[in-house]
Design goal:
Strand content: 25-35%
Number of helices: 8
CATH class of the largest domain: Alpha Beta
Shape: globular
Number of domains: 2
Largest sheet: 9 strands, mixed
CATH architecture of the largest domain: Alpha-Beta Barrel
Radius of gyration: 19 Å
Structural class: alpha+beta
Bound molecules: 4'-deoxy-4'-aminopyridoxal-5'-phosphate
Helix content: 25-40%
Order of helices and strands: EEHEEHHEEHEHEEEEHEHEEEH
Distance between the termini: 20 Å
Mean pLDDT: 97
Low-confidence stretches: none
Amino acid sequence: MSRIVYVNGRYVPYAQASVHVEDRGFQFADAVYEVCQVLGGHLIDEPRHMARLARSLAELEIEAPMSAAALAHVMRETIKRNRVKDGLVYLQVTRGEGYGKREFTFPAKDVPRTVVCLARTTKPGAQDAAARTGISVKSMPDIRWKRCDIKTVMLLPACLAKQAAHDEGASEAWFVGADGYVTEGASSNAWIVSDGGSVITRQITTDILPGVTRATVMDMLAKENLTLEERPFRLEEALKAREAFITSATNIVMPVVRIDAAQIGDGKPGPVTLRLRSKFHQFANISGA
Ligand code: PMP
């Protein structure tokens, strides 16, 4: 079956899907995006993802390209046309095409935004296999800008960090600020579990992305009577933590068993992490197909 991509009002074959060379997403990373998990044909935590998309657009003064209902329809139609049962849907909105002269200032308000939607199936069981052993993480200096709370496509620091991690056999990078505190993963939020069993993650500021999976895990912690400490933690504290994990829409809750040269806990996924992973979808919002 050929893949279909939504681009600016049309569902086109993958090979023919393109945006203009003057698109501001391409030239300036002047664009925002969302990635939502698809499970059994259902969208996971769609309301939170769409609320964050609206916020990202508003923070950058990009007018919404269409109504929330129309965006929801585009995502569902893209999922349907690609027959995705388990996988993900990717939605990107750019400020649109510039004036044809690579002008930094914004184009007129009536310039249409570019909207792209992709959906793809993920390998069944691949995530669960990784979760059984846990992943390794490499720490990296956080060289990103000061508005990491906005989900922009300006992902070069994340690409560089992930490549450096990959080169050392790690599958995620954890960014560490100049103050020695972990901010977040290159494409995930960072968590540790203390000896006392508290579950610790950095509070939301402009330094990190307000993860949707993070928010749902917090709901779960409250209902499961687990103690949450929303505070920054140093890399040294993480290296000595009893457990560590990351959260993201594509990984859900993924155990971390190594950070740099340090083994975390006994080097196996921890019980708190595995409990959160196994129960996650009981707490997530599951949308109609
Ligand atoms: N932080 C960053 C930098 C990310 O790219 C992501 C993935 N979107 C996350 C955190 C996790 O967010 P979510 O749970 O909404 O996928």
